[in-house]
């Protein structure tokens, strides 16, 4: 397994995995598969390049035998009163790579990357309360739940609650 930052030339590879996650696990993401797929490809690629523009924004990927099998994004807040915070987003590991420690390794890499960002103090993320594997991983890595948003997402007719979590650097 190789863990490394994605670069601006890997947008198509990223979007292939991202769309898999949005399609197969709609309860885990705020974005929807249909809405994302409807966006022009060039717009998605431009967004990807912004998300890997570093050093305050990045996407870390897990590669197995040359194939991208997991991702986690880091995005720093832009406002002067919020630049001490960054959000972790888009965490996804393809089913064939689950149970191998990929998610943990990705999150550890994101935390390590966050430590290199000047004046960054905390990371935040949201996780569906019923996603026990992800929730327990975040807790084991030192994230703390500071609240729960009831009905944070609605997938079809199902409401999904979300635990809001923070990690202090």
What order do the helices and strands follow?
EHHHEEEHEHEE
Q: What is the helix tally? A: 5
Our measurement of the CA-to-CA distance between the termini, rounded to an integer number of angstroms, reads 26 Å
Classify the beta-strand content into a percent band.
35-45%
CATH architecture term: 3-Layer(aba) Sandwich
Proportion of helical residues: 25-40%
What is the total number of structural domains? 1
Mean pLDDT: 96
CATH superfamily: Gcn5-related N-acetyltransferase (GNAT)
CATH top level assignment = Alpha Beta
Sheet with the most strands?
7 strands, mixed
Poorly predicted parts:
none
Features:
single chain; 169 residues; alpha+beta; Aminopeptidase; 32% helix
